[in-house]
Amino acid sequence: HTVGIQMSAEGVLVVRLDDVQTESGKVCPARDAGVQEGDLIVAVNGTEIDANDTLQKQIALSAGEPIELTLQNGDSTRTVTVTPCTDSEGSYRIGVLARDGMAGIGTLTYVDPETGEYGSLGHGICDSETGVLMPLKEGSLIYSMVGSVQRGEAGEPGALQGEFTADSTLGTVEENTDSGIFGTMTDASLYSSLEAVPVADADEIRTGDAEILTNVEGDAVEKYSVQVVKVYPEDDEYGRGMMIRVTDQELLDKTGGIVQGMSGSPVLQNGKLIGAVTHVLVNDPTCGYAISIERMLEEMTN
Description:
Elements: E1 2-17, E2 20-22, E3 25-27, H1 29-33, E4 40-44, E5 47-48, H2 52-61, E6 67-73, E7 76-82, E8 85-86, E9 92-93, E10 96-111, E11 117-120, E12 136-150, E13 159-173, E14 175-177, E15 180-184, E16 208-217, E17 220-231, E18 242-246, H3 249-255, E19 266-269, E20 272-281, E21 284-292, H4 293-301
Antiparallel strand pairs: 1-4, 1-10, 1-12, 2-3, 4-5, 4-6, 6-7, 8-9, 10-11, 11-15, 12-13, 14-15, 16-17, 16-19, 17-18, 18-21, 19-20, 20-21
């Protein structure tokens, strides 16, 4: 089933460095000070920053005096001194486009009915411009329905258009990893009436017939036929478990194949859960990649 996903970052992510137009020409104080795209601003002058609005307020309050930014990038932390400039309208700026959270739609892959622990997406949530994994502060899953579908075509990936409201929370988001997002369901309404399915080991996955469960219309979860066309080794450097091809004509008619928002759709073979859809091939939306369920479960328990 689709779910709305809301996340706030643990700091403010530098998405892009931009030149600021001043009276004396274009400058970028942040770049000059050594700030890089993908850096996470976690403090200004020693004060913790967790929202873009707070960062902008601190820059404005500087009145052009140097400010100290504490930056994280991966496991490293460093401090730089940036002197804000005034743009053509007289506002103080340092030349960064920053982001402090995201909201979107994805698909819930599995829930452990005994604990409520879940996995979704099969890949991490990254900033669309830098590709940096969004450092999670907190997040939530929200009940979602599919309002419409933008069909995928070669060269133009399609997308599910979700409808959700913030007051229908289903669970928490506690981990954002390369293998998916993980947390705990606080509302069992999506799965309380369902039967559990067995989980396949990675060495049980075979090329051939399989099926996916996905929600591409309204509130309905349907089963569609696919083919596993390639199985990748467990140590694949890109984290791919398998390549799949959509063969179900009904799904092809509705979506053109795999579209954004279907990430996390569970893949089953011989009655067992073997993985989750992760990515579409841009030049052939009938095909895409899936992560093995074994990899997702290992990530959840780490």
